[in-house]
Amino acid sequence: MKNLLLQLFFFSIVIQNSLWSQTNFTRKDSLQGGLPIERTCFDVLHYDLNIKLDIAQKKIVGYNTILFKTLENTTKIQLDLFQNMNIDSIVFQKERVRYTRAYNAVFVDFKKELSKGTTNSVCFYYSGNPLIAENAPWDGGFVYTTDSTGKPWIGVACQGDGASLWYPCKDSQSDEPDMGATIKVTIPTGLTAVSNGRLQGTEDLKNGTTRWDWEVKNTINNYDISITIADFVHFHDIYKGLDLDYYVLRANEERARLQFEEVKPMLECFQSKFGPYPFSEDGYKLVETPYLGMEHQSAVAYGNQYLKGYAGRDLSRTGIGLLFDFIIIHESGHEWFGNSITSKDIADMWIHEGFTCYSESVYLECQYGYDKAQTYINGLKGNIKNDTPIIGAYGVHREGSADMYYKGALLLNTIRHIVNDDLKWWKLLLDYTTTYRHQIIDTETVIHFFNIETGMDLTPIFNQYLRHSTIPELVLTKNKKGVFVKWKCDETHFAMPIEITHNGITTRIIVTTEFTKLPLSISKKAFLKEINTQKFLFEIN
Questions:
Q1: Which residues of 197-206 are buried (b: 16+ CB within 10 A; e: fewer)?
Q2: pTM given for the model
Q3: Is the dihedral of CA 263, 266, 272, 276 positive or negative?
Q4: CA-to-CA distance for 516 and 291, rounded, in angstroms?
Q5: 179 within 8 A of 121, measured Cβ to Cβ
Q6: Which residues of 314-334 are buried (b: 16+ CB within 10 A; e: fewer)?
Q7: Residues 323-356: pLDDT tens digits?
Q8: Residues 129-178: tens digit of each pLDDT
Q9: Which of 148, 156, 229 lies closest to 190, judged by CA?
Q10: Residue in 116, 266, 301 with CA at minimum distance from that of residue 196
Q11: How far apart, in whole angstroms, are the C-alpha atoms of residue 433 and residue 439?
């Protein structure tokens, strides 16, 4: 628990520092988060990553062959690799090409113009010692530790910092390799290297090392590409035709077989609500990692120590959060929200985290019913800080507030109850995940879709919760004519219902930013006691 509290403290400091720096952007920020012509002039089709990891030296040597299609005539493209990593050479059509570096950006110059519509590739040779994470997954980098027998146990998590901290790529969420990726990892013989997708085979290189070859058929976020290395035990299962593979430390096999039984009801629930598992061609994996967890596509990182809740803790403080393994449910939820549906800019990361946090209550509703799910999600209100807007700054690689998790989830719960028709709501969510399956979108796309599908103008609702720091405040006043209510908020055209159960009858009232008289003969005290505070996210003055 002490370690968990330290992690949470560290995370809060990181978020605060990130928010403080949002008005102090630099060219480095623009190069990492922006979309200049050097990035938009080409579309990545495939990565072929081939590396050798020297565990003792904590060093990588290898290359990434990047296949791309030219979208505009160009003589220069931007790739990315952290400054502390060495560029050994960049080869195009069997010749070395010139390049320049600016912070973590690498500008590749071609001798002749690449024509629009042509397909080309560069082979990017590199080496060096990638960053070592101090507290993964809240900071990016490699984790080097050992299992209980002293054998190496290594992982990498890089969301936020960027995948270019350990391999060269076009490090932007706006572009994923359309034809997937191959990941080949050479390590000491006797250990297992696990990556995304399916294992294509191994090769004993006769020098005390073995190469593990993996292939991802689907498009994949850069930060989702990952490797985990250990003395793993592998066991396999199948659920309705979907391959389930588990890689766990040898000493934990028995515990894993029991704990991972939760995968099947999770898949049953999520597939019924969000549609088929998005990456069936690549299978589903849980991989035991030396950090808490991460949504690495088709290779979900699991480090929850085989406990219920969030490392044994209930984030909702209701007791209901201990009914499920948080990492299995939350990180698997990202397969639909974040991995299949991806935000173009990390400023819109609520599209990943808000929907995935909401999926926790969806799972609880599947397993234990509506009431427990509502108790859980409302218990998360205590984690909301209302510090800064959920949406960050565009084009400079800046996320918004960590409220993207809990406030984002409660925003969706609020919209569900504004819709007030569960058949319509579940169809809307299913249509959302299938419509934008394997697509890269932004906040405006989400809002437009919800407006069209509900037939409502939900724009002021989304804007209030996403673009402003505060949540709506219900203001009450009473005079001889009765009790009057209105919303105090930032959005002029904001309107949202409230529900009151008085004398056994539930009344639904639409409240705006102008005072509305309650159509009930009720005291202010009774009102405060009888208003429903579970369906909509707001405060009461």
A1: bbbeeeeeee
A2: 0.94
A3: negative
A4: 51
A5: no
A6: bbbebebbbbbbbbbbbbbbb
A7: 999 999 999 999 999 999 999 999 999 999 999 9
A8: 999 999 999 999 999 999 999 999 999 999 989 999 999 999 999 999 99
A9: 229
A10: 301
A11: 10
